[in-house]
Fold this protein.
Amino acid sequence: MPIIEFESNRCECNPGETLLECLDRHNCPPPSSCQSGLCHTCLMRCVEGTPPPDAQNGLKESLVTQGYFLPCVCQPQTDMKVTLPDESAAPQCSAKVIDKTFLSSSIVRLRLEVDDDFSYIPGQYINIFKDDTLTRTYSLASVPALENYIECHIEKLPEGKMSQWIFEELDTGQTVHVSEALGECFYQADETDKPLLMIATGSGFAPIYGIVRDALNQGHQGEIHVYYGASVKDKTYLVDEMKDMAKDHSNLHYHVSLSRESISGYESGRANELALSAHDDLKGWTVYMCGHPDMVKATQRKAYLAGASLHNIHSDPFEFAK
Amino acid sequence: MSDSLFDQLGGEAAVDAAVDIFYRKVLADDRISRFFDGVDMAKQAAKQKAFLTMAFGGPHNYTGKDMREGHAHLVKDGLNDSHFDAVVENLGATLKELGVADDLIGQVAAVAETTRSDVLGK
């Protein structure tokens, strides 16, 4: 079985175990968050041996060539000597909270002031660090061409350590650390004439809010159908803003639905089901879906079976931190 | 020297075109779709691409051991020859839809056939 050398530890990796699990079992884990290869929090560098290619998916070419890999999705095939990353490999910058506003009973909006050279595309995500041990991933709802701050929508999760801290303690004027922006769920500038279907639940509306405004700002001509859902009215947010936006853009169609309440002005049912029953032929469409991982997984499959191409289905890929 | 099967089929571009059609057929096929319940679409699509690249005679890293280990949990769950046949049938239908000549389809099916015993853990 492969031996993993890390600092002064020699750790034997069991079959089927990830390198992160192995280091955790030997009480020397690096910081980690999503455990599915997305947030890059656990980034490490392999200085002897070779990481399997799957453990380098999604990393920049410059990091791949330096032996960087993601231990949470690494099943070692050979002995490896690994180190924590240089600071330059996982850039962080400080961001000042300039606005904290409750948008619904379960969502708070943070606006953060970042350096001018912070670059991102609406719909990408960042990690927000509370400290060395606690970090979470949030999608960006802001549009750099329209706003000089970055905006995240944080949903309060039961027993969510990070959301509890943000809801109850973090305040305007405070500074947090954030990662660079990552991810591939964003508006593709070469699709101005294509029909777009966007589906969001919960704070999954954050990236959709960024993507739809980015599309309109870039002059998108095709039809855009946004389906946004929550369980009850109390948890919905930015509904009036979206209705106004739809009034201003004849190609934007906004549907808001509730799955556990019947209230006039809101459709009844789940956003993903309403979207797919209204649009059962998605050939030639680009589909965005963000929200609860189970909803996203099921909807990806349905959208694909309805004719959307694999490379035209974009999702915000979050899992809840374990 | 004649072109390899992979080149005759159109190389990586042909694989990309085929994955989208093939995987959709597989997921829509009631005989086998249950084996794909709850899987991550993006990861699965990458696996389908690796499989088709192999079946097309292209460069690949598939080993018999991977095939065996990767499908062992499905064999426990009842994966058998009839399901393997259904996948090969969908593969053939995909290539037909893409206008591939019958003799090349036969060659692809023959390559896929070489994985049967590993996939089914025989």
